[in-house]
Every structure is written in structure tokens, then in C-alpha cells.
């Protein structure tokens, strides 16, 4: 097939409004058709939601250890004020390519797809795999289903490159995350008779106090100087409840998240808060606890083969760590070496007029081409 260049592919991908939590059949279908025409073996892996899928593709001998390029197809909603154009229509502004998902992370997907036809024409000694996931922006909900299928689809990859925006400098570690939603149910009534009601907001104050105390304790360590801040953290991010000031609130809900340094299970940081729900149930409140997302930390040694490879491919020494999270920790937890490296800047993500530079796409294309040349040896 005559390949499209990265900018042309990016224009097509941005045009799919693949917002997190929504059906993604259109973008998956277009990518699958493109890859099949390029000669890849393609698997569309339906998720349990029924309206969205992961995609896995291979070129080369799948029974040998190769490399896996991973990215997510979903984007956050484009509700920020300040967009100067349609977020789902790529706009060139000098060196900038503006649109939702350009940096996070359809730019990387476009580079991978642009290079693939060239790599596919080579006789590969080792395979190249593509793993494109859904609902990463909702706490990496889609990729665990994909990772579970990898043993059935190929030999364990020698390394996984997660193309999150990193200015094309590899990153060896990131924090893990766990998030939960807590809802309390009390008893409504008129505020003049608090003795007859059960105030869910007042009861939630107990949970909030425990969360604040837990967050403060974490500042005392353990520490990992590679991260900023160098300790695990916890916060309550949202709270909803009540109808009017003169009505005893029957319901109150909060969302809480924990971010953990390597070696700490982020879910364990929420355990004390979940345990406090027993006390509230004893007081007559109904409680609901829902884990809304979690992923482990990533920690790859500086002398790991994948880290050394990425230094060769990019010409840059990998960064030790970042504090945000990616799908990389889940690949590592499944027994595969993983590292972050992609075009664009995370500082542009989730903002109006998100953009990537044309030169950044070109540099990423060159990096993937160099990886393909290695696989052909």
C-alpha cells in the first residue's frame, strides 16, 4: 500500500471524537483496515462494555520476542473554554498541529501507523506489535483486557514502549494510582428537626477527616527522591451532596485518589478509609464503595536492556521518573519490560488548543524507523 504520512494520519485520527467512556468502533475500524492493508495481522478485542474495543496487531514472526508499541485511542472531552477552532478537526498553525489528542496521544499513534508499511516490507527477524487501548483516560480501564490476551497472541515481548508525550525522552518510572468513589445514604427531613433525620454530609466529614489525616501521614515517607513530591500522596477531589440549606441531606458522595511511589501498592493507601465505612454503617447509614480505577507504579532499572535501547534510539539519557501515571506499570506487572517515550509534551494535554509540533512527529517517525531496522537484523 502507498502509505500516508504522519500528519495526514493524525488529521484522520483527530477527526474521530473518541472521547473516553464512549463507543470507539469508528476509530478502531479505520485503524484495523489501515493495518490490514499494510499486511499486519490484526485482532479487534472487544471489551466487556460491549461498545468499545482494544486493538492488537503484529508484523513479523509472532512466536519470537519482539517489541510492542502501546498507545490509547481515547481522548478527554474538549469542554475547556478557549478553543480557537473545532477540537476534532486538525488545524495547522505554523509549526503547530492543533486538535484534541494531538499530544495525548494520537500523535504517537499517527507516527506508528505512518512507519508501519515501510517496516512491513522488510523481512523481520523479530516482530513488531501494536497495542492500542480504550478508556486510558478513565484510569486505564481498557488495557488490562488487552494485556490478558497477549499470551494467546504472541511470545512475550522483549520490551514495551508506551508512547505517552515525553518530548521523545524515555522515562523509566512513574507513580501508581488508585481511585475510589464513596457514597453515603442517610435520612432526609426538615432541618428544623435534625433529631429525626440522618445527615449524610455530616457523616462524610468523618471520612474526610480520615482522608486528610492519611494524606498528612504520607508526607513523612517512605521517600523516593526520583519523584516530585518524593512521597506517596492522597486527596479528595470531588464532593457532592444536599438539595437545599433547610433540608437534611440524604446523600453525599466523594471521589478520592492515591498516588504511590514504586514499591507501594496504591490501593493499600485507601484501605483505612474504606475500613471506616464499617463505623458509619453501625450508625445507620448506607455505604457504597467503588474502585474507579487503579494501575501500579513503573520502575525500570537504568541498566535494563530496554532503557539502554531507548537511549540509543533517541540519543537522550532516559529520565529517572515522573509523577503522573500511564499504562506502562500494568505491562511491567504482567512480566514485560516497559518504558515511556513519545512525541509531544504532557503539559499541553487536557488543555484548549492542544497541539503537537510537526518536527516532533518527524523525530518520532525516525525513532520507530530505527527500531524497525533493528528488528530486521
What does the secondary structure layout of this molecule look like, with pairings?
Layout: H1 6-14, H2 25-37, E1 41-46, E2 53-59, E3 67-72, E4 91-93, E5 96-98, H3 102-120, E6 128-133, H4 143-153, E7 159-162, E8 173-174, E9 176-185, E10 189-190, H5 200-218, E11 233-241, E12 247-248, E13 251-260, H6 271-275, H7 277-282, E14 286-295, E15 298-299, H8 305-314, H9 328-333, E16 338-340, E17 355-357, H10 358-375
Parallel strand pairs: 3-6, 3-7, 7-16
Antiparallel strand pairs: 1-2, 2-6, 4-5, 5-17, 8-15, 9-13, 9-14, 10-12, 11-13
Describe this structure in words.
The protein has 377 residues and is of the alpha+beta class. It has two domains: 6-173 and 297-375, Zn peptidases (Aminopeptidase); 182-295, Alpha-Beta Plaits. Helices cover 31% and strands 23% of the residues. It is built from ten helices and 17 strands. Strands 1-2-6-3-7-16 form a six-stranded mixed β-sheet, sandwiched between helices. A four-stranded antiparallel β-sheet has the order 11-13-9-14. A hairpin with a 2-residue loop joins strand 4 and strand 5. The radius of gyration is 23 Å and the shape is elongated. The mean pLDDT is 96.
Amino acid at each position: 500500500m502507498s502509505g500516508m504520512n504522519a500528519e495526514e494520519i493524525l488529521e484522520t485520527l483527530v477527526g474521530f471524537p473518541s472521547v473516553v467512556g464512549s463507543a470507539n468502533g469508528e476509530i478502531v475500524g479505520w485503524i484495523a483496515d489501515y493495518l490490514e492493508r499494510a499486511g499486519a495481522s490484526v485482532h479487534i478485542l472487544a471489551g466487556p462494555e460491549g461498545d468499545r474495543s482494544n486493538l492488537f496487531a503484529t508484523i513479523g514472526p509472532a512466536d519470537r520476542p519482539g517489541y510492542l508499541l502501546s498507545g490509547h485511542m481515547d481522548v478527554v472531552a474538549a469542554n475547556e473554554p478557549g478553543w480557537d477552532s473545532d477540537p476534532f478537526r486538525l488545524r495547522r498553525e505554523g509549526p503547530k498541529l492543533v486538535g484534541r489528542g494531538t499530544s495525548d496521544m494520537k500523535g504517537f499513534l499517527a507516527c506508528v501507523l505512518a512507519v508501519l508499511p515501510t517496516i512491513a516490507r522488510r523481512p523481520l527477524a523479530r516482530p513488531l506489535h501494536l497495542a492500542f487501548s480504550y478508556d486510558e483516560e478513565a484510569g486505564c480501564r481498557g488495557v488490562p483486557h488487552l494485556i490478558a490476551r497477549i499470551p494467546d497472541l504472541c511470545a512475550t515481548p522483549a520490551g514495551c514502549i508506551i508512547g505517552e508525550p515525553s518530548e521523545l525522552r524515555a522515562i523509566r518510572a512513574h507513580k501508581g494510582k488508585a481511585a475510589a468513589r464513596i457514597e453515603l445514604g442517610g435520612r432526609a427531613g426538615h432541618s428544623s428537626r435534625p433529631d429525626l433525620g440522618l445527615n449524610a454530609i455530616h457523616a462524610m466529614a468523618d471520612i474526610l477527616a480520615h482522608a486528610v489525616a492519611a494524606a498528612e501521614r504520607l508526607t513523612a515517607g517512605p521517600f523516593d527522591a526520583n519523584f516530585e513530591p518524593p512521597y506517596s500522596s492522597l486527596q479528595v477531589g470531588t464532593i457532592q451532596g444536599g438539595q437545599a440549606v433547610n433540608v437534611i441531606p440524604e446523600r453525599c458522595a466523594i471521589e478520592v485518589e492515591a498516588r504511590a511511589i514504586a514499591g507501594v501498592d496504591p490501593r493499600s493507601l485507601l484501605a483505612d478509609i474504606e475500613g471506616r465505612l464499617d463505623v458509619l454503617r453501625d450508625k445507620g447509614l448506607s455505604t457504597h464503595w467503588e474502585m474507579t480505577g487503579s494501575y501500579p507504579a513503573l520502575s525500570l532499572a537504568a541498566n535494563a536492556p530496554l532503557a539502554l535501547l531507548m537511549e540509543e534510539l533517541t540519543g537522550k539519557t532516559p529520565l529517572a521518573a515522573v509523577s503522573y501515571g500511564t499504562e506502562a506499570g500494568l505491562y511491567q506487572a504482567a512480566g514485560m519490560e516497559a518504558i515511556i517515550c513519545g512525541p509531544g509534551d504532557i503539559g499541553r494535554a487536557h488543555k484548549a488548543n492542544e497541539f503537537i509540533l510537526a518536527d516532533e512527529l518527524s523525530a518520532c517517525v525516525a525513532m520507530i524507523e530505527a527500531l524497525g531496522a533493528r528488528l530486521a537484523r
